Amino acid sequence: MAEAAAALGQFDFAGDDHVVPFQVEGLDVRGRAVQLGPMLDAILERHHYPAPVARLLAEVVVLTVLLGTSLKFDGKFTVQTKGDGPVDLLVADFSTPENVRAYARFDQALLAKAVEAGETEPEQLLGKGVLAFTIDQGKFAQPYQGIVALDGTSLEEIAGVYFRQSEQIPTRVRLAAAELFDRDDAGKPRHRWRAGGLVAQFLPEAPERMRQPDLHGGDGDNGDRPHGEDDAWVEARSLVETIDADELTDPLVGTERLLFRLFHERGVRVYEPRAVFDRCSCSRDKIKGVLKGFSAEEIEESQENGEIAVTCEFCSTTYRFEPVELQPAE
Question: What pTM does this model have?
Fold first, then answer.
């Protein structure tokens, strides 16, 4: 079904946890923008992550949502980092059409040292390693994986490298996460997480206009406009780079309003928003199926107090099984 476009003000704003596709016809740019609120807050608070870890995972969730909602088929899009920093593993995945889950793994001692030293930027927490983007279309197709080095640059810059390598499309990504401290309807102090992001891509009708610098910055003739870049994309990229992190996370600056601020002079159009939800794909039957593949010795070693307990790393749900449930049917 084709998405219906509307000008700002013709319909209610999308609000939190809705991805808003947009198009700027005057600049040949398409993209998606999102602000995440309750959905993200549920994911982070479930694990009680320290603030630096929560903020980092929030950015990865935003990136996953922005890219995952572009899938045109049933499948799963996963973003995963593996590095040698205090946060050695981050995983977030988007299952079509709307389900998101995520978790982080970190070394408490290394994280405490990093915080004490003031080294809490995303690139410092991740260290050196790799970031993998995986697209899985199910059992009838081979998964596609793109891998980009974690090299001390930001997640925004690393995502840009991924697009240059895999899709050859000029792309600019912006990500931000923030803690909010306010009061609920009863006047009690409240702590919440929010995050936002935007991805803009240059998609002119003439493919030759999509020329862009190479992975090392190209042979630019100045610091702002690499040689050969199209004027429309230079303008669009420059506008996207003016976004403040606060604008991406401010609950009073809706996604459509932000897009209007950026592109109104060029005629931005927004499309029907897509809701995303905090939903894990784990189930008792799935985990039972895995355990039934264990040997009798492995089943014995996995028991504690006469039962086997398995906790999902994503949603923290614990499933408990009696050993007799895992025995083969006679």
Answer: 0.87
